[in-house]
Amino acid sequence: MPLLQRAGRLDQRAFDAVAAARLPGFEYVLPRLSRVADHSLLWLGVAGGLAVTRQPRLRRAALRGVFALSLTSPIANLVGKQMFRRRRPLIELAGLPTSVGRGTALPAARVRWRLPTSPSFPSGHSAAAAAFTGALAMEAPASVVLPVAAAAAGVAFSRVYTGAHYPGDVLAGLALGAVAAATTRLVWPTRPAPAGAVWSMPAEAVQGISSDGAGVVVVINNDAGGGDVTRLLRAELPEAEIVEAGEDLGKTLGDAADRATVLGVCGGDGTVNAGAEIAVERGLPLLVIPGGTLNHFARAIGLETAKDAIEAYRSGAVVRVDVACAGRRLFLNTASFGAYTELVDLRRRMENRLGKWPALAVAAVRVLRHTEPTEVYVEGRRLRVWFAFIGNCRYGSYGVAPTWREHLADGLLDVRLIGAKRHIGKSRAVAALLIGHLHLMPDYKTWRTTSLRLSGTDGSLHLACDGELGTADGPVEITKKRAALAVFGPPQVAEPSRRPLPEPPAEEDPPSA
Fold first, then answer.
1. What is the extent of the structural domain holding 139?
2. Both 303 and 381 in a single domain?
3. pLDDT tens per residue, range 267-317
4. Cβ distance 279 to 485 under 8 Å?
5. At what angle do helices 124-137 and 41-51 cross, to 10 degrees?
6. Hey, which residues does 200 pair with through a beta bridge?
7. Which of 163, 207, 349, 420 would disulfide-bridge 384, Cβ 3.0–4.6 Å?
8. 262-267 and 241-244 as β-strands: parallel, antiparallel, unpaired?
9. Residue 200 to residues 61, 392, 480: CA-CA distances in angstroms?
């Protein structure tokens, strides 16, 4: 107890020092800042502002910040305060003279509009500020984090300056918020840096890169937000030719490639996939301009926005990455079969009426209720499968649905599937797919290989390549074309190097049935 008493006295002296401090202007600013932060409204407002931007990185940061708040608030306000029940500092309110600590009077101008009646330890405002800022710092750039961190520091100090908390309450709240922010990574890992191990070939860098975009032909899918990109391209690369994608995307891309020294594509992963196929066929470097909802491939090479793509082009940094082929179809991210193909098919049939995300939710419910396992031959073995994904290169994320890679030219296919044994129901398979912790699934299989043979038991197989559906008649051989696609990437990814293409890691055998 002497240690606690000593800490209490130290806390009181620190509070008295703050109460005695006179900081011109802060009597007006800090009480209002403290009030704005009530019920985490300040942080929810910041999250809302980030969410309405079109930058995936900022949207992820906002979502992580709200997630951290949802963890912190119940612990601080429902558990911590009720467990310790520390009384708040005495303050002057409504003109009643009240001494603070050892007789230091707290100026009435600092007093909040309403005296808090809940226990003092820990500070919920400080916990929320630290949780949101810490989570934001895991995803957002410094230009966004620093102003938010300054506001968080102001909120934490205001809790002492306005007489609502002792300094010890604030420090405990900050520590709690920091732990909550770190805990979000256990449930939702932060997005890694761009695939820095991409094999680069400076000798193949495009000669004569023009700052005005001469020789660049960009095919834009206007359904993927092409209007804003068109305006940006015309401002930044005025000599680039901009072509709207027609009904026959392949023909439009082929015609564009005939006139291009650099082929550009703006759209989602399906559009980029089609552009990559033409670029590989014609031996052209590909300029990927993110314009879809998820932009998996663009983000894998470090391009979050159209502006990032323009800077990558001007840098002349060209890297080479693997492509995978399912028969004649090419994919850069994943191919899939099973219930996922039904999900994509249903979503596309409804998205014109409902919108993409509502259609996805409705499709997920219908698939959960009505879908049946897919029977397929995998390397000659007959399997019943709920979900299956084949990734282009090794994926580092957990779960059946791959999300990020460390290397884009390793020569491997990453195979993941959830089988459908009798005791494994749809609900459990879907839960595993959503949560991602598939080590709990007894019929989850994963292995790496350089090729894969598939065939449907009825002679055909529905296969989605980067989200684009198709049907393969007869057996399908999934293979790799190593370092076949030249693509512009950020300079930090495409570091100059003449090192040889590394040998792929050892191939793994499929697990036994």
1. 2-186
2. no
3. 888 889 999 999 999 989 999 998 876 788 888 888 888 888 888 888 888
4. yes
5. 20
6. 319
7. 420
8. unpaired
9. 30, 18, 18
